[in-house]
Every structure is written in C-alpha cells, then in structure tokens.
Amino acid sequence: MAEPSFARLSLFLFSFLLLFATYSWVFGPDSSFHVRKTLRSDPKLRVDHSSQQPHHPLDPLTVQEIERVRTILSGHDPGFGSGSATIHSMALDEPEKLRVIQWKKGNRLPSRRAEVVALSGGQSHVMTVDLDSGRVVSDLVNPTCGYPILTMDDIFAASQIPFKSIEFNRSIEARGVKFSDLACITPFAGWFGSAEEGHRIIRVQCYTLQDTSNYFMRPIEGLYVTVDIDNLEVIKIVDKGQVPIPKAAGTEYRFGIHNKPVHMDHINPISMEQPDGPSFRVEDGHMVKWANWAFHIKADQRAGMIISQATVRDSETGEPRSVMYKGFPSELFVPYMDPEEGWYYKAYMDAGELGLGPTAMSLVPLNDCPRNAYYIDGVFSSPDGKAIVQPNMICLFERYAGDVSWRHSEILIPNVDIRESRPKVTLVARMATSVGNYDYIFDWEFQTDGLIRATVAASGMLMVKGSPYENVDDLGDKEDDAGPLISENVIGVVHDHFITFHLDMDVDGPMNNSLVKVHLEKQRVPTGKSPRKSYLKVKKYVAKTEKDAQIKLSLYDPYEFHIVNPDRKSRIGNPAGYRIIPGGNAASLLDHDDPPQIRGAFSNNQIWVTQYNRSEQYAGGVLVYQSHGDDTLQVWSDRDHSIENKDIVLWYTLGFHHVPCQEDYPVMPTVAASFELKPANFFESNPILGAAPFFDKDLPVCKPFASS
Amino acid sequence: MAEPSFARLSLFLFSFLLLFATYSWVFGPDSSFHVRKTLRSDPKLRVDHSSQQPHHPLDPLTVQEIERVRTILSGHDPGFGSGSATIHSMALDEPEKLRVIQWKKGNRLPSRRAEVVALSGGQSHVMTVDLDSGRVVSDLVNPTCGYPILTMDDIFAASQIPFKSIEFNRSIEARGVKFSDLACITPFAGWFGSAEEGHRIIRVQCYTLQDTSNYFMRPIEGLYVTVDIDNLEVIKIVDKGQVPIPKAAGTEYRFGIHNKPVHMDHINPISMEQPDGPSFRVEDGHMVKWANWAFHIKADQRAGMIISQATVRDSETGEPRSVMYKGFPSELFVPYMDPEEGWYYKAYMDAGELGLGPTAMSLVPLNDCPRNAYYIDGVFSSPDGKAIVQPNMICLFERYAGDVSWRHSEILIPNVDIRESRPKVTLVARMATSVGNYDYIFDWEFQTDGLIRATVAASGMLMVKGSPYENVDDLGDKEDDAGPLISENVIGVVHDHFITFHLDMDVDGPMNNSLVKVHLEKQRVPTGKSPRKSYLKVKKYVAKTEKDAQIKLSLYDPYEFHIVNPDRKSRIGNPAGYRIIPGGNAASLLDHDDPPQIRGAFSNNQIWVTQYNRSEQYAGGVLVYQSHGDDTLQVWSDRDHSIENKDIVLWYTLGFHHVPCQEDYPVMPTVAASFELKPANFFESNPILGAAPFFDKDLPVCKPFASS
C-alpha cells in the first residue's frame, strides 16, 4: 500500500485540530495577537482588545495581561520560553470575595493575578501569577491526580500518531477510505485503573468526509486507536473487522447544499423589534445593567460564560440587593451507554477536559441571537501564552415572546372592566459551545420579577456507531444493545448529559445564608376532626451540614429548597430567600463504583450545598483529564462542613437521558431543559405590581424590508 | 340592626354573578343574542355570528343551532320553556370519530347533534338533541352521581341566600363591614358523605371591597355559610369569631390606580413584528393551517379550548399525517391543604364545576397576546338556551423568541466556515381563564419539527385566609398550620393544582396505536467483560391493558413513553411514534380515601392510557358537582381494557405544589409548567433539515411609533 502523503494528511489533520480546540483561534506573529475574521460578525461591536484595560475586579485578563503572564512565566520556568512547558488554561485568579464586594467604581483594582494551569516536565502545575509584582506566587505541582484541559497541540499530536502505524494505515485502506477523506476525532481517555496511569493517553476514532461535511454520521466503526500524547506513540490498535460505513446521502446540513424540499408553507419574516434599541447597557465591557438587574458577565476558557455579582433592586427602596455572587456551568458529564471496545471510555467531561470557551464559536447573528443582540468577545491564552480573541462568543438580548408576567380578569365593580395583563420582557445572556459533535446553548435569563432561569439546550450531531444492520427487522434480539437504529447502518448510542451548575448564592450578602428544606408532608387527619382525611403540611428543616444537603429529588417526597438569609427579615418577619426550582430532569443511574461515575460523582445528587471554598469551583475537580475522582463535589461534600448561616454554594445538576431517534439524524432538533432561581419572601410583595402594560402608541411601525 | 338595602345588594350581587359565571355574557331579548362590547377587542376580527354556518363536522354549535336546540328542548320538556328546567352546558355532540376522519371538504356534514346537560325537576339529564330530525334522541337521567356545571343563576341564587339569615347579617355588621363593600364568592361543596346528598349545596365566603378592587386579599375570615341552591335556604352558618380583616393598602393592581414607583430602568418598546402579516390561515373560522401543521380549533364551554385533528405533513412526501385527534384540559383539580372549618371543602374541579369557557374573558390585545394575533370567539348557551358570544376568547399567534431550532458549528474543511443555525418560529394557540381568583393561561404550541408543547401558566390571586397574626414572630408553633404568612393578617393557604389533559393520540390513524414503555435499565457489566461496571440499556415493553398504563413518574426508574403505530413502519423498520415528555411536575400526595382525592382520582397517576371510549372525555366524570368519584379516569382504567394496537387515549396530569410567598401578594407573577408531544421515529429524519436561516434582507424595517 502507498503511505499517505504527509502534505495532504497535514491539511485535514489541521482541520481536526481546529475542530476540537481552536475554532476561531488564529495565531499572529510572536508579539501580537489576531482576531479571526468572521464573515457575519457585526463590525460596529468590535472592540480594540489590544488597548483594553480591566475596569472591575472580576474583569477577565486582557490581551496585555495575558502577554505579561507569558513574560513572567518565561522567567519562572525556561520551558515556557522554549515550548517544552505548555499553558493549558489561563484565567483571572479572582480576588477574595470580600474584596470584590467592597470594591466600588473609582477605587483602585485589587492586585491582578492569573491562575495558570500548565504542564511542564510531565507534571501538572497550578500556578498563581501576580501581575503587579511580576512573580509566580504559588506553583502547586500535581495537587490532585489528573491532567489539565487538553490543548489544540495535544489533539493535533494525537490525531497524527495513528499514521505512524502501518497497521492503522492498512486498516483504513482496507476499508476503501481515501486518506484525503479521513476525519479523525479524539475521544477522551477517561480513567480505568493503573494500566493507563502515568502518561496522558487519548483515543482516536475516524470517520469519512466523503460526499458530506457531516462526517459524524459516517463512522469507520471497529477501528479504535489509543495513543500516548506525551510520548507520541500508539499504545493500542484494535481492529474488530469491517463494519459498513453508513452512506452520505441525507447527511449534509449546510444551507443551499442540502436541497431536499421542505414540505411546509412559507413562514413570513418575523422579528423581535426594538426601534429605540435595546434597554440594557454594558458598562466597561462587562457590567450589564437592565431594568432592575445588574450583573457582571465574562467569557471563560473553562466555564464558557460566567455571571457574577447579580443584584436586583429592592422593589420598596430601590437598593441593589445581592442574589448570586457567581453562576456558571461547572462541569458537563456525558457518559455513553456502551461497554464495548471503542465505546466504554466515552464519558466526556467537556468543561474540564476541553473547555467550553474555545469551543464556543462566534454566534450567528439573526439565527443564534436575534436582531439588536449585543456581542461580547472572549479573550483567552494559547498554549504558548499568546492572547487569542474569540469574537462574538456571548450575546445579550431582550426577549419578548408574547408571554404574560402577571394577569387577572375580574368584573366585580359594575360597568368597570378589569382585565389587567402585563407583558413579559426578559434579558437573555447566551453562549453556544460546540464540543465536538454536540452543540450546547447556555442561556441565563433575567426577569423583572426577580426570577433567573438557566437553560441548557442541546443540538448538533449525535455520536453514532456503525452497525452491520440496515433494518430493525434484521436486528432480532440485538436491538437494544447500544441503542436504536436511526438510519441504515447507524446506531444512535444511548447516553446521558449532566450539567452541574455552580451557583454561589449570596442572598443579601455573602456570610449568612442557610439552606432551608421546605417539606410538604402528608398528614393524616385524626378521625372526627374534619371531613377531610389528609392534607399537606409544610415543615421547614435547616440543613446543618453538607451531608444534609446531598439531595435527590423525588416526585412523591417533595421539598422546596430555599437559600435564605436569616439576618434579613421582611416586614412581617420572613427571612429573605431564593428558591431553586428544578424543571424536567434526569438522574445518573450508573453504579457508584463505575469509573465514569466516580469521576462524574457530582451527578450523584441533583442538589448539593457546600460551604464556600475558593478552591471548589469545578465539580469534577481542577485537573479533570484522566482524573481518579478524588477532587469532586462528592468528596468535598462528604467532609460534611457546617453550612448553617455561612457563605454557601448551591450546586444543581440538570440531566437528560437521550435515547436517539430518527429525527435526531443527521442533526438534532434542539432539546432544552432549565431550572429557576426565584425570589421567595425576598421582596415584600410582587415587585412588578406597578409595571405598565404595552400600549399600541408605543409599539414600532414596521415595513417589510423589500418595500422600504 | 338595619337590614341591608335590597337594591344595593342586588347591585353587588350582580357583580359576583358576573364574576363567577357570566363575564362577557349579556342577554338580549328573547329571540336574539348579544355580544358584550369589549373596549379593546379588534373590530376587524369580528364575525357576524348570527349568520354563521358550520363548515366542518367538529365545528361548534352556531348561534342558530343553539337557538334551534332551545326550541327542540321546549317541545321535549315544558320546563325549558317555563324556566324550571335549566341548561348547564351545551356543546356539539361530535360525530363518530371515523365519520369525522372520512369527511372531506365539500362533503355534506354528518348530522348535527347537541349534547345538553340540564337539570329538570331536581334530576340531572344528559341529553342528545338531533338538529336535523328536531328530536331529543337520548335523555339519560342521573347517569352517574353528581350534578352539572353550575350556572350563573345558581351562583347568583347562592350569593343571595345568606342575606335571608339574620345571623349572617349580624355577623357582617359586627365586623364593621358595610354591606355596600361586601363581595361574596361561592366555593364549591365537594362531597363529604351522605349528610350533603340529595340536594345541591354551595358555600358562601365573603370579602370586603373597601378601598380596593382586590377583595380577594381582604377575607372576612371565620364566617362560613352553606346554602342549598335548589331550596334557596341556608343550611349552616358558622361564625368562629372575628379575625382581623387584612388592610387594603398595597392590594390594588389596576394600572394607574396602584401608584407605587417601580424601581427599574425603562424598557424600550419591543414587539414581535411581521409586517407581511402572520403566516397562518384560519379557514372557515376553525381550521388552522400553518407551516407543516393543520388542526381544528374551537372554544368549548367546559374545556375552554379544544384542538382536534392535528396533522403534520410528512417531511419526505408532504402527505398530512395524523398525530392527535383531540387534545384539551379535561379537568382541573385544586385541593387546598387546610382541614379546618371553612376550608376543608376547598378542592375545586374548575372544568366540571364551573367551565373553563365562560370564565375565559376576552384576551387583552398586546398584553395577553402579541400584535398580529388572531382572535376567535366562543359561542355558548345561556341557562335558558339563548346563544352567548364570548368575544376574543382564543388567540393564535406566531412566536419568535430568539431561540434556535437546530444548530451546529464546525470548521472541518479548511477555509470553509460552517456555522449553521436555524431560528425557531412556532405557532401558539392561547386561552386565559379566570376561574374566580386564579387565572390559568393555556397554550398549545406547534413547532415545525413536529413537536407540540402544552403549557399551563398560573397567575391571578391567591385564595388567602385571614389570620390574627401580623408577624411571623407572633406565630410561634402555629407557623405551619395552613400555610405561610405572606402579609399582615394574610395566610397564603398551601394548595396543589392538577390539570389532566385528554390527549386522544391517533398516530397515523385511529385504530392501531399502542403504548410502548421504553425503560432505561441499569445493567451491571460482568467482571472482566469491560472496564466499565455499569451502563443503561433500553428495554421496550408494550402495555397490554389499562392497568399496565397507570404510570407514576420516577427520576430513578426512568422510562420514555411512546404512542406508536406498529402498522406504520419507517424505511428502516421503526414504528411511527410520538413521545410524551413530562416537564417539571408535582404529584398528589393526598390519601386515596380522602374525599377530594376520590373525586380527583385522575391525579393518582401522571400518565394513563385508556381504550378510546366516546363517553370518557372528562377525567372527573360528566357530572362533577358533588360527584362521588364513581365516574373518574381511575374507575375507567381499573376496568383494565386492552390497549394494545387499539384506538387509545393518553392522559397526562400536570401538577404544581404551591406554598405561597410574599411575592404572590397581591397578584401572582406567572408560574408555568409544560409537557411535550414529540415525534419519535415518526419522521424518517430531522424534518426541518432543509429549513432556511433568517437573512437580514428579509427582516422588517421598523421605526418607533412616535417618529412615524
């Protein structure tokens, strides 16, 4: 057989690399940074990142600061100059919470520090770099098991390694796949015991791009490669024999290329219009002010988007009151349900293994976000410490969906027609991350009644498995093995998604919060006391320690969960509180000794509350890649610290079971789930009682574009 | 004491009457009907109901038909002429399902029949009136226990009865309430054993309207009256002694009258705009056609709004395919959690006791429904058989909320930027019913990907209880008794809401549907077979009988629930199906022997599937008022009919627990919950793969109104 041309290989390997870790990243000359030009971004929103300064203690590192970290690191460890040490993630090391809370606009910023997670000499380093003093003030080596987020270099290297193997090349050729059509992705390794310890490994799984851009639907099943990323060598190749590669027909999804007719009537143009412009302001690039809300927003390499210091104005006094100090998706856990070779390790932790920031590509105006959206860029560090700009990564927009925020119809007083209704207008902050095949859209939605809704919507491509079968009838007893047949030779492998949110609630201040479990307990009425035989009674339990707050939801044992500040009482004496309201959810059913579940142990409960600990940000640990699960939310919570009247953090895990169906092929209609944080005796009364209705005289006058 | 002036009493009693049963009903001279003039309705949508003809077998009775029923009934039973017999509900008696399905536009309509539920001589009659032959073809007397929906006359009568009692009048006067400020409502009786059998009874509970239109927040607690509606006599008065009447301050909610400042920045006008107009058509008043959907919609006295014959076009062939024959809220059940005198019987069944149609007042344009909404009127019968028009009772509108129907970002092929995203535009059908204090907004939302979402949003006023306490600190151990203190002297009584939907699914036809329970079962991996120790495996169980389909949802024992047509296979052999996807939910925890739960037994499970039976429409039975629970979904399901490969009906109960909080006072911010019906192997693949994105050139150009 002919060895594949290296030049051609590089071309498409470069593509895989872009796919998994770089997306919009483009590198300029050593001393500068570049913004990848995006065709559809709005030029008027572009900011000159090279001159940006931080304005707020929580503002992300600027381009200049990232460059300075690089200089400082080069002085600390020559590896950062030579390239033998690599930066895997870099973010602002946020100042102590109390310093941030006490800071006022106009004050000098607390000292700026960077947290850098790096690999040097095969060791994981978690470093704190002080930008003011120019020193590395802390350098923890292997603080826990596990490795940092993968870099694009790791993935690039991994993708190249199989081609060193004659066996691999022969297997590809034997399947009749042209090397120029080959597209390989790199499923993560997970952790399955000592055999795979001591070096970073990754899997390589290939597809064919022939006749489609949707290579995910054309797996080259049965060929599984494990490589060592550090030593650049193949560890294991398994070729279980050929499985038919599913056909390309019907898989293309790009507009204008997929030409199948859509059997539906034309939908006239529709748009949320605000001819006076949006009502929110973004001050200094990150402080958002809208209606009665203010919050800080930033892009983050790991969490994607972070909301901080969310405050809402009191409806009586107008004072800003703290609700949530910090909220972000702390980890994603996506275990697949196939114990077979080539699939058993597929249990992704996308935030800690890949990062939700660099995979959040520029949003598509008018389609990912409506007109009048405001876009915010991400600024990250490349593996060699150069600044990278991810344009239009976050959008902010106001939403009016035709819904009602409150209403009542009444005709009590004769000749007076009471039909009062108030429209619901909300503010949405959005990011969409494409972690390989899946796309996740993260929304934070703020309502004027004080409610915050977090929504995760999933779309993109399934991770499918090639199958010898073309029809369900041919499957016989094998039907249920890995999942349902969703197209000829394509099995949609059953999997779960768990997204664990870090919700650092600071209801009316950081220090004095408690979790109150409001239990709805069925009471039996003693005979003769009432014609009723039963009713529900509310009993409140204050969680004393973290183990009291390891909570599994149950439809038939219902609780409300309130974070209250017992030191802030309402006029009538109720403590100020916010409830977490779960929506539709799914629980992890994997055994607790199953390696993926050990690492994803934060999905063992739907709700947790822990004592605030600055280092406990990521539910799966700081170093997640090949982690053993010794630094998870479960481990922290089992320490059982006191959480009564303390600075506490609420964690919520939102889950989906996904049994794929034909409609998920070749790209999935969006599926969404959400939870809410809702005021509960936080305001004295309905805070939007005095809100105005819409009047026709205020609404815009619109013409079709063509006729204007 | 002075007896209250009857003239003044009538004035406000007339108001209560309007509040509870008539709303927009106005009666004209004997031979005609009138439309109540609503200030804010859109005159261009008005139709001339007097000349309307039915165009479709499911079209509701027209004004002329209602008048004809009245004539026929007068010939059948002289009581209908004299007024001694009363019509409690009237609706089209729908033709046999197969006749409706076989009917094509242009065919003659199947014979038109009315189902009339009436009281005559103290007996409940369920009658079928044939309009073509002019005969009462069926007249079932007391087919089950229970009485028909209350009429406005019942409620009017009930409200007057207490004033016959000197004890009642003295109690009111003793509390210092002016008779001119008195507002009395009529909580229903429930059923608590033989003492209350044999006559129709109702409770009367009074409030004061002094200084507020929001009398619901000013209960005259401790005074409870039970009256016999048929004999017009007081059965029981309980005066437990005076409880302070909560103050009026802060309770007013009408715009411009409540003048408290709202502490928030101005929100600029925002509107969903469609300068080319909406994309849906409403043919012959009731057939809605939009995108790939077609369905019949009508107002109904009992269910409020009924969706029928929902069909979606096949994405491959364009053929219309049946999804759901009929969907509507079959019953609402709202048990309060206070076993005390005056409260134990509060367990409402609003559809069967009051009707969701007449209580659905005209929607408020721009606020209940957005611009470009299309309004549909309801046409009902008055108790004496005259036609009544409920204007603008239902609205239809297209929604674009800035969301995404599918997306994927990819950069695989060098120099090609793949970021494909499709906006989500949906069609919403909405009704808002004000059943006394509570407002329920019912939405049916249709997506182009085949998904149907039903949403129930609750707003309006709490049913509150007067309390001697002004502050939580004064309550001591009493805190949890009926519910939390939410304002001075106001307890928000804990309660549940259960809305049971009748979902007559006809997936690809009526005759051959089955329920498949798709179980996600945790498997233990045998040692040594895989590095994994567990995974989930999908196993499918076809429900054989109704008892197999009495389903309680469980987070830790998850199933998907598919209604499939085993006779309609996809290309690869999967049966066509639709899944029901629960959202956030709550279960009834009341004991099964508790009288309200016996009557509301349809809330014993979240999901049920029954064999189609024409007479099993209403989950709480045909005659719900004072019913004993012998005609509920539980009773039918326990008959355990076969449901495999049959015409079957899916029932879903959506629930809320409601522990009130201060924010619910004096009017509640909307709380919503929903469920979805989603295609599962119904389409060969994603049916909206070929949908177009939004382009700037197509979107409208808008100006602020003031400047236009």
Structural commentary:
Chains A, B: GO terms for molecular function: metal ion binding; oxidoreductase activity. Chains A, B: It is an enzyme of class 1 (oxidoreductase). Two copies of one chain form a homodimer. The first copy, chain A, is mainly β. Chain A has a domain of about 300 residues: Copper amine oxidase, catalytic domain (Beta-galactosidase, Chain A, domain 5, Distorted Sandwich). Helices cover about 10% and strands about 35% of the residues of chain A. Chain A contains ten helices and 32 strands. Strand 9 of chain A pairs antiparallel with strand 9 of chain B, so a sheet runs across the interface.
Put the structure in a nutshell.
The structure is a homodimer of 708-residue chains. Chain A has 708 residues and is mainly β.
Largest interface: A-B, 214 and 213 residues
Strand content range of chain A: 35-45%
Distance between the termini of chain A: 63 Å
Helix content of chain A: 10-25%
Uncertain regions spanning at least 5 consecutive residues of chain A: 1-45
CATH class of the domain at 314-359 and 436-685 in chain A: Mainly Beta
What's the gyration radius of chain A in Å? 27 Å
Organism (chains A, B): Eruca vesicaria subsp. sativa (Garden rocket)
Protein name (chains A, B): Amine oxidase
Domain Copper amine oxidase N3-terminal (chains A, B): 148-245
InterPro entries (chains A, B): Cu_Am_Ox_Cu-bd, Cu_amine_oxidase, Cu_amine_oxidase_C, Cu_amine_oxidase_C_sf, Cu_amine_oxidase_N-reg, Cu_amine_oxidase_N2, Cu_amine_oxidase_N3
